[in-house]
């Protein structure tokens, strides 16, 4: 039986590192990890910068040269910028889009020709609840994940008739085992927003410790890899399922008031 060849982006820590470790326990998988730094102790580690299209192409070419195929791409690399739109510079917004959206697109563009030739393949994107609905102080992050959702949904429809599957994982807070290193703040402050942004930033970091365990993320990824016909959307955890449902049935104004109240942000009377 042929082994499945898998590439994961962003495996230096957090979600990517855990998924890499767990998938490598399966003898039917050959799993490549990747990050911006070299790892000479890991023969299946690739130095990869997802913001660089040439780096992405080289990574795929290396795997094909060594294995003759690639079966699964897991786009995991990303970060979570928290800040009011007014506090967030154009450069920071651009950086968020380059990593979270274009990083995934670069990898998809690099691997799709191989999948088309093979007439098979799976693309798994680490999306987010933030790609389905927006929260205050996460505008740049939401923009990057909404873009990923829209792109992926169209791509799913284009590739599905050819036997290639695109799936998105959509979770809220994920417990990476530490205060979430991927949640970052903008460099500038604004007096009218910084108080609430700082409070929300801290809440998100703490809530991540009570979030979805990494073993749950692994379970879904393993399920997609082993499925003959994986779904497009996998909403993970009660929060993702409940909030998207409420957002679809509750009046817009009521939902917005509820969100602001949740984060202790007063609404002007």
UniProtKB/TrEMBL annotation:
What Gene3D superfamilies would the database entry show? NAD(P)-binding Rossmann-like Domain
Q: In its keyword annotation, does this UniProt entry include Oxidoreductase? A: yes
Annotated GO molecular function terms are: oxidoreductase activity
Pfam families in UniProt: adh_short
- Tell me if Ion transport is a UniProt keyword of this record: no
- Which InterPro entries does its entry note? NAD(P)-bd_dom_sf (IPR036291), Sc_DH/Rdtase_CS (IPR020904), SDR_fam (IPR002347), SDR_oxidoreductase (IPR051911)
Record key words, sorted: Oxidoreductase
Q: Which family does it belong to?
A: Belongs to the short-chain dehydrogenases/reductases (SDR) family.
The protein in question is named SDR family NAD(P)-dependent oxidoreductase
Organism, scientific name: Parvicella tangerina
């Amino acid at each position: 039986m042929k082994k499945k060849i898998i590439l994961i982006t962003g495996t230096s820590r957090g979600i990517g590192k855990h998924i890499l470790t767990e998938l490598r326990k399966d003898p039917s998988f050959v799993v490549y990890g990747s990050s911006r730094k070299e790892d000479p102790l890991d023969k299946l580690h690739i130095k990869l910068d997802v913001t660089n299209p040439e780096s992405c192409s080289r990574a795929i070419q290396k795997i094909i040269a060594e294995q003759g195929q690639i079966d699964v791409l897991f786009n995991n690399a990303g970060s979570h910028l928290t800040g009011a739109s007014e506090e967030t510079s154009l450069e920071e917004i651009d950086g968020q889009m380059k990593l979270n959206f274009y990083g995934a697109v670069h990898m998809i563009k690099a691997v799709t020709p191989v999948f088309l030739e093979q007439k098979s393949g799976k693309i798994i994107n680490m999306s987010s609840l933030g790609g389905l609905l927006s929260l205050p102080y996460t505008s740049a992050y939401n923009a990057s994940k909404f873009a990923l959702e829209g792109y992926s949904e169209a791509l799913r429809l284009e590739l599905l008739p050819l036997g290639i599957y695109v799936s998105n994982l959509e979770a809220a807070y994920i417990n990476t085992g530490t205060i979430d290193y991927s949640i970052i703040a903008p460099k500038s402050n604004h007096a009218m927003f910084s108080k609430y942004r700082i409070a929300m930033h801290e809440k998100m970091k703490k809530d991540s410790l009570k979030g979805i365990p990494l073993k749950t993320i692994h379970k879904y990824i393993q399920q997609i890899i082993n499925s003959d016909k994986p779904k497009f959307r996998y909403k993970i955890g009660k929060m993702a399922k409940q909030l998207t449902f409420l957002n679809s049935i509750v009046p817009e104004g009521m939902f917005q008031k509820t969100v602001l109240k949740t984060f202790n942000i007063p609404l002007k009377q």
